[in-house]
Each structure stands twice: as structure tokens, then as C-alpha cells.
Amino acid sequence: MVSSAYNRILIPALCAILLMTPSIWNHFPLVTSDTGAYIENAYHLSLPNDRPLTYSYFTLFTSLHLSLWLTILVQSMLLSLLILSFIAHILQRSPDKKQAVLTIILLCALTSCSWYTSQVMPDIFTPMIFLASVNYYYATTFKIRLIYILLIYSSILTHNSNLVITLLFYTIVFVIGILMRTNPQIRKKAATLLIVSVLSWLTLCSLHAIGGFGFRPSKSSHIFLIAKLSENGVLKEYLDTHCQKEQFRLCSYKNSLPDHAWDFIWNDDGPFAHSGYWDSSEVEYSNIIKGTLTEPHFIWMNVKESLKATMRQFILTNIGDGLTPQVEGSNPFWKIQEHYRSELIPYLKSKQSTGAIHVQMINLLYACSFILSFIVLFLLVMLKKIDLRILFIIALTILFCLINAFTTASLANILARLNSRCLWLIPFVVIIVLVELIWMHGKQSNLNLQHHATTDAD
Question: How many Cβ atoms sit within 10 Å of the Cβ of residue 263?
Fold first, then answer.
């Protein structure tokens, strides 16, 4: 009994440490330029322009205002528990301790998973939503199902993109459940999760309405959408067509629109800064966005550009976006100095702060792992080593990653970080299946050896 309880704590804790490997190697949790904003927003009651408050409060409460290491530890422990439950549901049994640890080691070595667990950023909560959703489907008690629902709800609220991702994913799964009449549980549980997604939308919209910003999920969605239209070329063509009869402030900048959405927003001397900025751009930007979504030519152009962006996004496996030195003069530096002063010296001595993180070879490995996972998957299907139940879970995994790529590429940026935060789920499922096949083969070989030994003794 004691041994069993010990293992229930030890194995998840060991797996959590493995998932923290990049931060341990870095000698400090990884940060990006956005980390400072997430830290700072927890100390203000006002809603930020460009993100929900949920992850900010998660960071505040889990760090205990003492150390960002505690935040990374909690993230890693949550993911560890979700992964171990996911493995058990895939295999329909609790995996052997060594098998579970080996699977996590391969996951950390061959995919980007641990790099996102190690960042003080909400990106890791997007794949957590998928894992928790599958675990919810298999959960057998009301208490466990409720825990998964609360985790999914909280995770959706950590990033605006999760609202769209979950709404699309759960809707598609619900429709699949209707078509698969032999398994009504898919339809019922997808409907429950769809309600959770809608509640997440209502929560954020209500918070903004209470704050006086209207019943909408984001204060600045019009800014990010117009920035995306700038990136994909739709904005330029729309302005070329309409500037002769409509006096948009952006017309003065239609020939100097930046190539990337982030440059449109964060350039203090760019078109955005001179066309209303955060305070007074909404009316003009909203009218332009409405035009691109109602005129047939631009509807088709949006669809075409969105599909192209999704395909470009889906194959991005790289890590390293934003993992540049965030030293004196950067937002993370200021906020760590202000709120976690005791950690400032180790932060400045970390590999990231000293520019010692080089990920070229790691990115090559992850790209090869991603390609190889599809090759292995194809061979396993051809050899009939995967049953329909697991094949269905793999299909859902690919669907979730495609929806993530579509959402982020269509509404935000074509950026490796926004894709590889989820893409590791595909090789992960293949790793689970491969390790299980190897494990079962090894057990069968041992049984055969024991049988031959017994026969020879007789």
C-alpha cells in the first residue's frame, strides 16, 4: 500500500522534472518578451489590451511571489499527470513504471514539449487542453470528470487563441459523434466540452463588458485582425481598391505596410501608431475588416490566404522564437527585478541571458522526428499494428494540431512558437504506440525464454 502510494507520487514527480529539463539546463525558467507583461498584469486590476489575465494570475499564485521556478514546477506537474493518464487511456492499462519514464524521456528528447513546459508562458496550456479532453472522455467518475472540465475551462482562458481552437475542435468532434451513431458517448461528451468552450467565451466577454469595453472576448481583436490582413496582403489590396472613395488614415501607409503582423503592431513609428493606435483605431479598422468579410472578392482572398498560411504554419517545428537574451532594458528584466528581485542575478547568469542558447541542431532533430513520426505511423497502419480506437485518437490529434495551425496562422502570426507548442502531440502518440509494441515484444521474448528454460530443465 505504501509502495503503491509512493509510486503514484514518485513517477509523476520524476516525469515533471524531465519535462523541466530545458529550464534546468538554462539554470532559470525560459522567458520571452511577453513574459514581463504576464508578470506585470497580475498586479493590475485593469484588463490588458492584448491578452487575458488568467495566466498572469496563475503565475502570481503558483510562484507564491517567491520564485518563477515554482510556476514551472506546477506547469510540469500538471502536464506530467495529464500525460501519464493519457498514456494509460491509450494503452487501456496503467503502464509499467519504466515504460512510462522511457516514453517521457523520448518525448523530451525528440519533441519540443519540454521547451514549452519550461517557459513562463501560457503556450503549454493549449496542448494540455487536448490531453485533458481525451482524458475526460475516458474518465469513469464524476469527480475526475469535473476536475478535467475545470482544468480545460481554466486552460482555455489562458490565451485568446484557445477560444477559437476549442470552439472549432469540439464542434467538429460533436458532428463526428452525430455521424458515429454506434458510439453516442463521443457526441455527449463533445457536447459537454463544447458548452465549456462557450462558457469560456462568455466569461471573457462578460469581463470586458463589466470593464466597459463591450461584450467581446478581447479589447483589441480589431488590431490583431488588421495586422494579419497586412501580413497576408489582403489589407494592401483592399486599400488600393477603396482609398479613392473612402478616407482611411491607413491609406497614407498602404505602400509601406510591414510584411509581418508583429511589425505592424509593435513598431512605434509604423502605420498602426499613426492611424489611431490602441485608443482610436477601432472604428476604421472594424470597417475595413467588415469590408474584407462581406465583399466576395475579399472573402475568397481571405479563404485562400488562410489556407496557405495554415499549411505554412503546420510544418513549423522549430523552437527558439523569443528565446533571445532578455537583459537590462527588456520588459522581463524590469518585471523580474521589480517582483522577483532575489532571482535577478541567476536570471542574468542563465544561458538565455548570456546568449548561450543555440537551437539549430535541436530544430533539425525535431523536424526529422516530426517527419519520421508520419512514416512510422504509415508503416504501423499498413502492418495493422494499430487498432481503430488508437487510430481515431491519432486522427483527433492531427485535427487538433491543424485547427491550432489554422487559428494562429489565420488570426495571428505565421510563427513557429504558435505551432510547435502543439505539434509535439503527433510524435508523442506515435512514441506511445512504438514503446508499447517494443515493451510487449520484450515481455513475450522473456516468456519464451522462460518457457524454453523450463522445457530444457524437464
Answer: 16
Task: Dump pLDDT digits (tens) for 301-311.
Answer: 999 999 999 99
Residue 410 near residue 402, CB atoms below 8 Å: no
* Alpha carbon distance 419, 320 (integer Å): 12
Residues 161 and 253 in one domain: no
Query: How many domains would you assign to the chain?
Result: 4
The CA-based angle 66-72-73, given to 5 degrees, is 90
Using CB atoms within 10 A of its CB, is residue 121 exposed (0-12), middle (13-18) or buried (19+)?
buried
- Interatomic CA distance for residues 190 and 175, integer angstroms: 9
Distance CA 130, CA 113 (A): 14
Which residue in the block uniquely carries the three cell numbers 510547435?
420
User: What's the distance, CA 353 to chain centroid?
Assistant: 24
Residue 448 banded pLDDT, cuts 50, 70, 90: low
Judge if 112 and 140 occupy the same domain: no
3-state secondary structure of 140: coil
Asked if residue 228 lies in contact with residue 415, where contact means CB atoms within 8 angstroms, the answer is: no
Ramachandran angles phi, psi of 30, nearest 5°: -75, 145
24 membership: H or E segment, kind and range: helix 21-26
∠ at Cα 243 (238, 248), nearest 5°?
Answer: 95
Q: Which pTM does this prediction carry? A: 0.94
40 and 157 housed in the same domain = no
Evaluate if residue 110 carries a pLDDT over 60: yes
2 band by pLDDT with thresholds 50, 70 and 90 = very low
- 129: in domain: no
How many CA atoms lie less than 13 Å away from 391 in the CB half-sphere? Answer: 11
* Span 395-442, pLDDT tens digits: 999 999 999 999 999 998 899 999 999 999 999 999 999 999 998 877
Cβ(87)–Cβ(140) below 8 Å: no
